[in-house]
Design a protein that fits this description.
- By secondary structure, the chain is α+β, with helices and mostly antiparallel strands.
- It has a domain of about 110 residues: Beta Polymerase, domain 2 (2-Layer Sandwich).
- Helices cover about 40% and strands about 20% of the residues.
- It is built from seven helices and six strands, in the order ααααββαβββααβ.
- α4 packs across α5.
- The longest helix has 16 residues.
- The radius of gyration is 38 Å and the shape is elongated.
- The N and C termini lie far apart (about 115 Å).
């Protein structure tokens, strides 16, 4: 029995048949997709005249006036002055009214050493306890270590830092939007 020898042309036809069988047919757009794309309106562009006539949104109302708290402002200044008495450096008072719910003013100061920071905090506590209206802090944190001492007098919070610790936590940068008064 003689077999017919395949020629190169017949080989390429067999390969083409094999490829067409394994290849997935091209997908056609369904009628739903065609209808969906035809429902979209073409993008509109406004002319310069139409843009001029368009009504403008009203300007936002000015921010509400913040309630004055002269007692807290005076306490913040007094704390700042007491810190300067103990040679604190870079004393800043931040006006936090309307920005935080826990204080109206924040006092930030730096000391050269842990011992100086503790002495500054103790001076503030002792001096505010004396006088006609003695004040005691609601909370005190960090007095033992002297790295970062926090004195909470309700509407005024004082943060007393060692210089390196102040640079690391950068409260000045965190509250950069707050109005500030620099005492020294």
């Amino acid at each position: 029995m003689a077999t017919k020898k395949k020629t190169p042309a017949s080989k390429s036809k067999a390969k083409a048949k094999a490829k067409s069988v394994t290849r997935a047919p091209a997908r056609k757009k369904t009628a739903a997709k065609k209808a969906k794309s035809s429902l979209r309106p073409p993008p509109r562009t406004k002319t310069a005249a139409a843009r001029k006539k368009a009504p403008r949104a009203p300007a936002p109302p000015p921010p509400p006036k913040l309630a004055e708290n002269p007692k807290a402002r005076e306490l913040a200044r007094r704390i700042g002055e007491l810190l300067l008495d103990k040679k604190a450096s870079d004393v800043i008072i931040l006006d936090m009214r309307g920005m935080t719910s826990y204080a109206d003013y924040i006092v930030i100061a730096s000391g050269e050493s842990d011992r100086q920071v503790s002495a500054m905090a103790e001076n503030v506590q002792v001096q505010l306890k004396q006088g006609a209206e003695p004040l005691r802090p609601i909370s005190t944190e960090g007095l033992e270590t002297g790295q970062w001492v926090l004195l909470d007098y309700d509407d005024v919070v004082a943060h007393l830092f060692n210089g390196e610790v102040r640079a690391f936590y950068d409260l000045d940068g965190l509250w950069a939007d707050a109005p500030r008064v620099k005492l020294a």
